[in-house]
Each structure stands twice: as C-alpha cells, then as structure tokens.
Amino acid sequence: WSADKVTVIFVLGGPGAGKGTQCAKLVADYGFKHLSAGDLLREEQDRPGSEFGEMIKTYIKEGTIVPMEVTVQLLENAMKATMEQDNKHMFLIDGFPRKLDQAHAFERSVVPSKFTLFFDCPEDVMQERLLNRGKTSGRADDNAESIKKRFKTFVETSMPVVNEFEAQGKVVKVTATKSPDEVYNDVKAKIKERGV
Ligand code: UP5
Ligand code: MG
After folding, report:
1. Would residue 28 count as lying in a domain?
2. Residue nearest to atom 33 of ligand 1 (CA)
3. Residue 9 backbone phi and psi in degrees, to 5
4. Owning domain of residue 180
5. Is residue 156 part of a domain?
6. Bridge partners of 8?
7. How many whole angstroms from 20 Cα to the centroid of ligand 2?
8. Is residue 2 one of the residues assigned to a domain?
9. Which ligand is nearest to the CA of 16?
10. 176 C-alpha vs ligand 2 centroid, how far in Å?
11. Reported ipTM
C-alpha cells in the first residue's frame, strides 16, 4: 500500500445522513470505487460458513462497533480485489472509521486518508429518513430502538474520529439536510477545492 498509488477518502456522518446516497452519485461522476463498511459487514454476516456471522448480527442490531480486526480485514480484501480486477485505485470508504482505534490502525497499516467527507445532519432528520427507509429496507437496525442506540454510538464513539481529523485539517464538512441533489452540488464544489 502506498499513498502515491492509492487514494482513500473516508465518508462519515450519522446514521441516515446520506453517506450511501452521496457515494452513489460520486461513483457515477468520478469513477471512485465505493466500499461501505456496513455493506461489507452485512455481506459477511450472510456468507455461509462465516465464523463472524452471529457476532456481526448482534453488533449491528445493538448499533455498536464490530471489533476492528474484522472490518479492517474486509476492507483490505475488498480494496485488493478492486485493484486487481478493476485496476481502480480511488476509494470512497463509507461509514468507516467510526472509532479512534480503527482510524489509527487503518491509517498506519493500510494507507493515510486524503480527507474525510463529513455529512452533518440533525438527529430528527436522520431518524425520519431511517424510519421511512425501515418500511422497506429489511435492515435489522432500521427500527426506533436500534436507531436510538446507533445515534448514541455515533455521538460517543464516532464523533471523536471526526474531531481528530478536523484538528488535522482533514475534514470537508457538508450540511446534509437539503435534497440529495442540492447536497451533492455542495459536495462537488467542496471536493474540488481539495483537488478532486
Ligand atoms: N436520504 C438520503 N439522503 C437524503 C436527502 N438528502 N434527503 C432526503 N432523504 C435522503 O440514506 C438513508 C435514507 O435517507 C435513505 O432512505 C435515503 O434514500 C434517504 P443513506 O444514503 O442510506 O444514508 P447512510 O448515511 O448511508 O445511512 P446508513 O443507515 O447506511 O448509516 P449507518 O452509518 O447507520 O449504517 P452502516 O451501514 O454504515 O453501519 C451499520 C452498522 O454496521 C453500524 O451501526 C455498526 O454496528 C456496524 N459497523 C461497524 O461495526 N463498523 C464499521 O466500520 C461500520 C459499520
Ligand atoms: Mg449507508
């Protein structure tokens, strides 16, 4: 892994802030590879024979953070596969790192991030989006009880990561309350300032 060859942008924001929605738009326009840590964990959970399936299921329902060894390994595997198969080297890593130990481990053992795209959104807006999505998503954590736990984890455990990157001048903050297209216009303008 080397920062000359691989570009990593972390995408953070509370549950339901719109990380996945905005990443899909960025992929279409910029050709990034989008890797959602949550999606990778859900895939691993459902993979027959996975030794981590039950554990992941419990953590996701409780809105707590899966031990980093598992998540970092899934991300590294996905990055390797992308580079070999698609020859892509620009990654949007969505929903990770959400705990300081993960941030430090990834930047030390994989590659330092270029910056973090942070979607700022109030809880009442995020809650409404998630409850609405929960009607059809089938996600085990899109219910009022799990959402409350996810918010608590986000504030207590994940915001310190954003604050640390912010202190390093590595956060691009976008307000995420408007429509997806309006938010995306802000994203494009702000990442351009960072040379993307
Ligand atoms: N929507 C999106 N943008 C909108 C807008 N501007 N206006 C109106 N509606 C908008 O969007 C959520 C919903 O809102 C959708 O219905 C969308 O249409 C609408 P989405 O883009 O999916 O938001 P996102 O921020 O991606 O929300 P998500 O629910 O995926 O966030 P989480 O961070 O909670 O979920 P994630 O999958 O990343 O993690 C799930 C769990 O996995 C964690 O709680 C944790 O237990 C575990 N995990 C780890 O343990 N470690 C990790 O490193 C990562 C995850
Ligand atoms: Mg998501």
Report:
1. yes
2. 15
3. -115, 120
4. 7-193
5. yes
6. 91
7. 4
8. no
9. 1
10. 14
11. 0.99
Q: What is the pLDDT of residue 190?
A: 98
Q: What's the number of domains the chain is made of?
A: 1
Kindly give the number of the ligand 1 atom that is closest to the alpha carbon of 23. 21
Q: How far does the centroid of ligand 2 lie from the alpha carbon of residue 84, in Å? A: 25
Q: What is the CATH number of the domain that holds 38?
A: 3.40.50.300
Centre of ligand 2 to C-alpha 111, Å, is 22
Q: Residue 178 CA: which ligand 1 atom is closest?
A: 6
- Residue for token pair 């691993």: 44
Annotate 17-40 with three-state secondary structure: CCHHHHHHHHHHHHCCEEEEHHHH
The answer to the question of residue 1 being in a domain is no
* Residue 38, ligand 1, Cβ within 6 A: yes
Q: pLDDT digits over 61-85, tens only?
A: 999 999 999 999 999 999 999 999 9
Helices (H), the chain: 19-30, 37-46, 53-62, 68-85, 100-109, 123-137, 144-153, 159-167, 180-193
Phi and psi at residue 33, to the nearest 5°: -90, 125
How do residues 19-75 score in pLDDT, each as one tens digit? 999 999 999 999 999 999 999 999 999 999 999 999 999 999 999 999 999 999 999
